[in-house]
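BACKBONE STRUCTURE TOKENS:
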Amino acid sequence: MTTHELETIQSAWPSLTDVLFVPHTEQDYERLVGILDTLIDVVGEQETHPLASLMEIIGVLIEKYEDEHIPELSDL
């Protein structure tokens, strides 16, 4: 990663932290689930949609939280 790329990310990051974060509480988790629901409505099955990778990342963050905090879901 170049210095220029880091500078670009650093300037964009504050506006992204409202939707892209690691959930540490149930409230964080519920917020991410709401964001994912909205993304699913917008992106649907379109793998080439510009927000498809964001939807995937948020899904991974939700799954990680569920694995650590909701053990009965991982038994399904």
Notes: Residues 26-43 form the longest helix (18 residues). The chain has four helices and no strands.
